[in-house]
Amino acid sequence: MVNRRSLDDALTPDEQSFLETGKTAKAEPKPKSEATSKKENTPMARAALKENFAQRPTAQVPPSSALPQFTMAGAVSLNVRIEPEISTALLRASMDRKIQRLDPFTQRDIVAEALAEWLKKHGYLA
Prior knowledge:
By secondary structure, the chain is an all-alpha fold. It has 7 helices and no strands.
């Protein structure tokens, strides 16, 4: 027959004291994982941190220039909720433009173009 350990044997002293008293003993900070520390020490990460902390605006700056400018390759995911009428109109526009072979015809491209136009109009995008 196999000797089985109890659940209490698997708990650390901190976990046991928490269960017994409801309070934690002084927990030691966990060391950063090797992967995290490598990411923070890359030349790009150090340069971005220096740039962000070195250039603090003293006067009020327009929103688009206050944010660090990053060049991203590809696209990022964005989930939003919109009214059913807008969704239906977007689907209809997408299908009509696809049939007529007009660019942009994908829903993603139509939304990206409309959003970029709005951001430019309000000064958030150069």
